[in-house]
Structures are given as C-alpha cells and as structure tokens.
Specification:
Elements (H helix, E strand, L loop, with lengths): L4 H4 L4 H35 L3 H29 L1 H17 L7 H29 L2 H33 L4 H6 L2 H11 L6 H6 L3 H12 L5 H10 L15 H24 L1 H7 L8 H25 L2 H21 L5 H19 L5 H4 L6 H29 L2 H22 L8 H4 L12
Length: 452
C-alpha cells in the first residue's frame, strides 16, 4: 500500500474535532426528520392541515434531502468542501428558526423543504471532507461512526419533544421545530476556520494552498517530498457529474445507491409507523409512543457500535452482507407469523434494529472510498438521493400496504427488499479495508476481485 502524509499521520486532536463537526450533519438530519413526528399533531390542529397537507409536510424534508444531496454534491466537487461546509448550515439554522413564525401550511412545507436541502447538501460536503483527511487505519471506523450520530439526533428530538409536550402541550409545536436551530448554530460557529481538503486542492492544481491546509491541520508544512507523494495520488483533473454514471463507476453508483435504498426503504417505514405496527402485533403503546420511538433509536444506535470496529477487523464486505441477512431473517419471521405474541414481535424488532444499525454504518464508508476526489462528493450526493427515494417510497407505501394486503405480506415485502440488498452485496460489495483512498477509488481496483 502506498502512503502519504495524510495516511501516515497519527489520529489526533484535529481528526477528532473534524469528526465531531462532520457528525453534526447526520445529527441534524436525524433530529429534523424525526422532530416532525413530534410536532405534526399540534401543527395540524393549529394550521388546519388536511391529510394531503400533512403528507406534504412529512415528505418535504425528505424531498429536500434528495435535491440537496444530488445538486450540492456536484457543487461541492466544483467549488470545494470548506466553503460549502458553513453555507449549508446557515440555510438550515434560518429555516428552523423561521418555523416560529409559520401561520400557513405552505410556509411550513417550504421551510421543511429548505431544511432538508441543507441537510442533504451536508452529506456529500462533510463526508468527503472528513474522508479526505483521515489516515487509512482509522477511516472505516470513523466514517462508520457518522451514522451513529443520526440516531443520536433522532433520540434527542424525541426527548426534546417529550419534554416540551410535558411542559406546554401540543401548542408549542413550532418551538419544537425551531429547536433544531440551536444545535445547528453551535455546529455552524464551530466549523468556521476548518481547513480545505488538500486532496481537493491538489486536484485543482493548488499545491501551495494544499501545503497551507496541511500546516493548519497538523502544525507543520509538508516537505517537498511529502507534498509530491500526495500529489502523485491526486493528479489535477476536472471531471463532470456524468462521470459518476460512466465507465467503471456506473456499477459502483448502482451498488452504493442500491444497497442504501434497500436499507432505508423498510427502515424508514418501520421507524415512522412503529406505534401502528406494534399495535397490529397486539402491543399498546398509548401515550408512551415518543419514549418508545426513542428506545428504538437507541437500540439501533447500539447496533452501530460493534460494527464500527468490525469494519476494520473483519472488513466492510462481511459486515454489510451479514447485517442484511439479519434484517432479512427478522422481517421474514415477522411477516410469516403475523399472529405471534407481542413479546416475540418486540424481540424480532430489536434484532431488526440491531442489524439495521450495524449495516447502516457502510452508508458513508463505501461511497467515499469507491470514488476519486474529483467526483467523490457528487457520488455521495447521488447515492444519498437514491436512498431518499427509497425512504419516501417506503414511508408512503407502508400504511397503504397494511390496508391493502395486510400486516404479514407487507412485512414480507420489506424482507424481499432486504434479500435483494443481500444479493447485491454478495455480487458487488468490494473489500476496501486497509487500502489508501486513492487505491480503493481506482478502477478497476484489486479489491473488486471477489475472494472465492
């Protein structure tokens, strides 16, 4: 494995700070997408929302994430990671704070859409910047840990919603939505001064700026030899968004977008309608729905923890395959025996949540490792956009499926999607553990020769 000053650098204070700042995006995503479930009842009563308007409010942020990831991934590859690293959060903070002044349904839909665009934009921005600064021996576990921040954000939104509801009731729904501006502003201010990715700078033929960025991060300038060695792995190149869909990268785009789709389509549907689904299995959630949703998020978070280490010890490929197997098996059991005891159903949902959490950590490892610097943010944006199509479809179709075909068949459809994801990973998932970023992104890499 060829190395560089970035790969040889010990994991230190700069990396830890950059991780926490980058994790702010997933945290806010989990918070913003989950907090609407807390606020929607009060908003519906005060604004007189119709069922159509409720659907638009619920879907607006998801659609925004799709648009933000697709558009601003490409923009980030053109103008740089650092400048976009703060602009997107300015929009998020503003949209969240303005929720305090909403008086009509269209205003709420628009603000939710803008907040979603900002979160979607942050996916390719923050993940690309972090991946391009990480040493090879810590890249997998650190990128995987970003996903855990999503569940921390979701749990935080349920906790805030529960406390606000206990203090002032549903009338404070706009304060619940506006609360996202507080962590958003903190993260925004902390991100100011973050150095640009030297890999991106070298791709744009700016070696002096790359040397300055390295000095800011590591406290010293690189030697001529160190900068030359890094430049060899990141030759100056201008690419187009279409490169994500051509040549050897097309299969990778289908892979990362496909497995992400198969993960989130059933997962978002279940997370959104947990009280309804559990009620169908005979479990009465009652007034504790918010607390139960928080518990589910924490269980899913617990599933992330061991896999964050396993992607470095056992590898990316076995982790994603076996977690898909766990999701497929648990959903197949739930679908095959819809009349099972509530306690057994809860146990299977716990298994499902643990497996989902473990597999989700690959959502930002593979897209950042399988594409080169000049199209990395674009690829992450495209993959996240594809995933949000799955999330929106799953969330919309689950209640339709429960009414049209019943509980068991609906769960079996989710199991079928997970089986497709399993097959996709068996066929296409490469092993990138221990590879330098430019090696895992090369086409065709040795890692895609599947072990027999």
């Amino acid at each position: 494995m060829s190395s560089s000053i970035i790969d040889d650098q010990p994991y230190g204070r700069f990396h830890r700070k950059l991780f926490f700042l980058s994790a702010g995006g997933p945290f806010l995503d989990g918070y913003i997408l989950s907090v609407i479930g807390v606020a929607i009842t009060g908003a519906t009563r005060e604004l007189g929302l119709t069922s159509l308007a409720e659907g638009l409010v619920g879907a607006a942020a998801l659609v925004g994430v799709l648009v933000g990831g697709f558009v601003f991934g490409w923009v980030t590859d053109r103008v740089g990671r650092q400048v976009m690293y703060t602009i997107d959060l300015i929009a998020l903070v503003a949209a969240s704070a303005l929720s305090l002044f909403v008086t009509e349904a269209w205003q709420l839909v628009l603000l939710r859409f803008i907040a979603g665009v900002a979160v979607g934009a942050d996916y390719p921005i923050a993940t690309s910047l972090l991946a391009e600064w990480l040493p090879v021996h810590r890249r997998g576990r650190t990128m995987g840990a970003l996903v855990a921040a999503w569940f921390v954000g979701a749990s935080a939104s349920y906790a805030v919603g529960y406390l606000v509801a206990a203090a002032g009731g549903e009338d404070l729904w706009n304060w619940v939505l506006a609360s996202a501006a507080v962590p958003g502003l903190i993260i925004l201010l902390a991100r100011i001064g973050t150095p640009e990715s030297p890999r991106w700078l070298l791709r744009h033929d700016r070696p002096q700026d790359a040397a300055e960025a390295i000095r800011t991060a590591f406290g010293r300038y690189p030697t001529e030899q160190e900068l030359a060695r890094l430049a060899e792995t990141e030759p100056a190149k201008n690419s187009r968004l279409s490169d994500v869909f051509t040549g050897g990268y097309l299969r990778r785009t289908l892979f990362v977008g496909g497995f992400w789709f198969c993960q989130v389509a059933p997962a978002f549907a279940i997370w959104t309608f947990y009280p309804v689904i559990l009620g169908a299995y005979g479990f009465e959630a009652g007034d504790t729905a918010l607390l139960w949703s928080m518990v589910v998020s924490l269980v899913t978070l617990a599933g992330c923890v061991p896999c964050i280490r396993w992607v470095e010890t056992y590898g990316r490929r076995p982790v994603i395959i076996w977690t898909f197997v766990g999701v497929s098996a648990s959903m197949a059991a739930l679908g095959s025996f819809p009349g099972m005891a509530a306690a057994l159903a809860i146990l299977l949902f716990v298994v499902n949540a643990l497996a989902q959490g473990g597999g989700n950590i690959l959502q930002w490892i593979y897209p950042t490792e399988l594409f080169p610097t000049d199209i990395r943010a674009s690829a992450v944006g495209v993959a996240s956009a594809i995933s949000r199509v799955g999330a929106a479809a799953g969330t919309y179709l689950l209640p339709v499926g429960l009414e049209a075909i019943g509980l068991g068949p609906t769960m079996l459809v989710g199991a079928g999607l997970s089986v497709i994801g399993t097959a996709m990973c068996v066929a296409w998932a490469p092993e990138t553990k221990g590879q330098a970023l430019h090696e895992s992104a090369a086409v065709p890499p040795q890692s895609e020769v599947r072990a027999s």
